[in-house]
């Protein structure tokens, strides 16, 4: 997709989000857009930034670090790490991102907290839940979520913002909403248990299920294809 179109696709994505919020009887601005830029060149991120987009999600650490270096002049950019995270790669994530959505075990969380530089704000984290129970998928199982959340909330340099999930693909809206509703319920239960944690973020909804996610209370939707086009 040529660079010139990002302004248009981003505008469409914003309108789509605004319409979904209206349809769900939720206030405008109740959910925001994370632009997922994995596999896409830094020039497209720069283009989206020029159109006012500030939050970007990346999945692959080395690719993300390279783009961050190229875009170091964009001083209000906010980087989210949303990909699988190995425990031997936590240091770079702790040093170069504002958010991590893919925490699914305590070891990774402990390392991120220990490695977060003292001059930076605490790292904002979401716990990734394996909401559709797929054996091959990342994420903490729902029945292990409480134990993980209890550990994370006690770590000094992390801020527990909420939950994230990538449900199994489903084409009809009813089937799409089921796992999203379940994630919302898990988040509500956690808020009861851990009133001291911010827990204000429900990271769910991608290009194909944005509307369903907004119906179920998403506050941060992660759009890749809808903004930057199909990935090779
Ligand atoms: C790639 C990716 C997205 C974006 O998916 P699209 O379908 O392209 O919008 C969102 N979240 C995660 C975790 C991803 O890996």
TrEMBL record:
Domain Alanine racemase N-terminal: 15-231
Entry keyword set: Pyridoxal phosphate
InterPro entries found in the cross-reference section: Ala_racemase_N, PLP-binding_barrel, PyrdxlP_homeostasis
Pfam families, alphabetized: Ala_racemase_N
GO MF term (any one): pyridoxal phosphate binding
Modified residues annotated as N6-(pyridoxal phosphate)lysine in this record: 38
Cofactor: pyridoxal 5'-phosphate
Highest taxon, organism lineage: Bacteria
Family stated for the protein in its record: Belongs to the pyridoxal phosphate-binding protein YggS/PROSC family.
Function description: Pyridoxal 5'-phosphate (PLP)-binding protein, which is involved in PLP homeostasis.
Protein's name according to its UniProt entry: Pyridoxal phosphate homeostasis protein
